[in-house]
Amino acid sequence: MSNLIVLGAQWGDEGKGKIVDLFSEKFDAVARYQGGHNAGHTVFIGSQKFVLKLIPSGILRPGVLAVIGNGVVIDPAALLEEMSGLEAAGVDVKSQLKISNRAHVIFPFHRTIEKISEGRENRIPIGTTSRGIGPAYEDKIARRGIRVADLVDIEFEGLYRALAEDKQLIANAFQISERVNFDEILSQYKRLADQMRPLTCDTSHLLNQMIREGKSVLFEGAQGTMLDIDFGTYPFVTSSSATAGGACTGTGVPPNKIDGIIGVSKAYITRVGAGPFPSEDQTEAGEKIRRAGNEYGSVTGRPRRCGWFDVPLLRYTAEVNGFDSLIITKLDVLDDLKEIPVCVAYEVDDKVITYMPASTRRMEAIKPVFEYLPGWRTSTQGVTSLTQLPSAAQRYLRFLEEKTGVEIGSVSNGPERSETMIVPGSKLEKLLD
Ligand code: GDP
Ligand code: IMO
Ligand code: MG
Questions:
Q1: 433 vs 431: CA distance, rounded Å
Q2: Number of H helices, E strands in the chain
Q3: CATH 3.40.440.10 in the chain, residue ranges
Q4: Which CATH architecture best describes the domain 104-196?
Q5: Which of 62, 259, 335, 401 stands 20 to 30 A from 286 (CA)?
Q6: Mean pLDDT by 10 residues, the chain (433 residues)
Q7: DSSP characters for 377-415?
Q8: Cα-based angle 332, 282, 410 (whole degrees, multiple of 5)
């Protein structure tokens, strides 16, 4: 059995949670490698709906180990709340969950800093999820962050006081009037640490040991490639490495142990928050997609911006991740359309370009070049094999495959586990075998 990475090929919310939940049956462990509770991964099991934020979607499969890797930033209060919700639903969280002692900790003042930064005059807000993710990663990179190992250590108070002093100095320098009760946070975090302690360990060693024993690991990406700190639409990105490379640095499993990389993409595209979006449709057609796809953020409830499948973007994300196979989700959302636009090229400053511009100015200047494919105007609900799909839907999928140069190994036509088709003979099928 292989070790696979499943990650978002667009701007997040591609349906990773559903796919990871479905595939996790075949794996011994599912590991998150970056992000935090900015993620919202929705899984339906019959009529039961779960939205996983920090905890890997694999937790919903009894016996599968769910690992929060070192690359993740953890808000202990959010973690314990998520754990309680799952326990109430009958999940045996305490025996299935392991937390890296090298993961960094989010504190309430990280959210305060984010609020101030997003609301600052003359700054274009990124439209973050307001979870303190960015400021926590800032502390990590600045080498002053507090890790889970420190949180559960007897020396925690000393480390915490140093960080708190640092934050107070900044608040004073910028004349920030918002008061933070550092002592109250300290006692709250000591209590939270007591609950987390039994679940923490060196998860890198744990995962590598499992792999040595012939067990298999599924790496669950959060966010998406276009939100990656290096390869996304910077600065309108999140603060972590959402791309395939992040799976190694974010878990401590080396690249030569990874057997396959699977991209998840919608049959169209969405984005929450601000930033360039070349194929965005702000007309009634985009609104129709939002309604049909129920495109509202699973964490913040914000309406997602909607647009059309973007071939240059997908080719770019396929290149930086090395996708072996692509999973197309939410095909059913397009069922009612008469014709479906697909962005096949970018035009910038009167030139057709085939690469992804790095600068925000050039990203925003992109004029999308569309091709229009006929829709199928019939429901794909309940279809269980690709050959049963309407011929226009098959043609649409073939078009995406040819234009992106990546095989489509699976198609999803509904939120349920069962509403997923795996292409017989595909590389994906072999990797899951
Ligand atoms: P993630 O963040 O990538 O896990 O995706 P989200 O859970 O934030 O958003 C995807 C949404 O689409 C969820 O509400 C899923 O239940 C839903 N979904 C996933 N696959 C399909 C599909 O093929 N068809 C439809 N109609 N909904 C889907
Ligand atoms: P999943 O895992 C979609 C977006 C935010 C904002 C930007 C930065 O469910 O696909 P942050 O709070 O991370 O600093 O916000 O990133 N964003 C997401 N968009 N899906 C997500 O996660 C996201 N996580 C963050 O909307 O634009
Ligand atoms: Mg989501």
A1: 6
A2: 15, 19
A3: 4-103+200-260
A4: Orthogonal Bundle (1.10)
A5: 401
A6: 94 98 97 97 93 97 97 98 97 97 96 88 88 97 96 93 89 78 94 97 98 98 98 97 98 98 98 96 96 90 95 98 98 97 96 92 96 98 96 98 98 96 97 95
A7: -S--TT--SGGGS-HHHHHHHHHHHHHH-S-EEEEE-SS
A8: 25
CB of 295 within 6 A of ligand 2: the answer is: no
pLDDT at 124: 83
Ligand nearest to the Cα of 329, by number: 1
pLDDT of residue 120: 81
- Burial level of 277, CB count in 10 A (0-12/13-18/19+)? buried
Which residues have C-beta under 5 Å from ligand 3, the single-atom ion? 13, 40, 298
Residue limits of CATH 1.10.300.10 in the chain: 104-196
Instruction: For domain 266-432, give the CATH number.
Output: 3.90.170.10
Residue 413 CA: nearest ligand 1 atom is 23
Q: Are 357 and 366 in contact, with CB atoms under 8 Å apart?
A: yes
Phi first, then psi: give them for residue 190, nearest 5 degrees.
Answer: -65, -40
Q: Atom 23 in ligand 2: which residue has the minimum CA distance?
A: 223
> What pLDDT was estimated at residue 171?
79
Positive or negative, the CA dihedral 95, 98, 101, 106 is negative
Topology adopted by domain 4-103+200-260: Adenylosuccinate Synthetase; Chain A, domain 1 (3.40.440)
HEC letters along 63-87? CCEEEECCCEEECHHHHHHHHHHHH
Cβ of 40 closer than 6 Å to ligand 1, yes or no, is yes
* Residue reference for tokens 């926590």: 136
263's tokens: 């991209």
Q: What is the pLDDT of residue 176?
A: 76
Nearest partner of 98 among 124, 64, 131, judged by Cα: 64
Find the Cα–Cα–Cα–Cα dihedral 231, 318, 431, 247, rounded to 10°: 0
**51 SS3 class:** strand
Contact 423, 409 (CB under 8 A): yes
Q: What integer pLDDT is reported at residue 425 of this predicted model?
A: 97
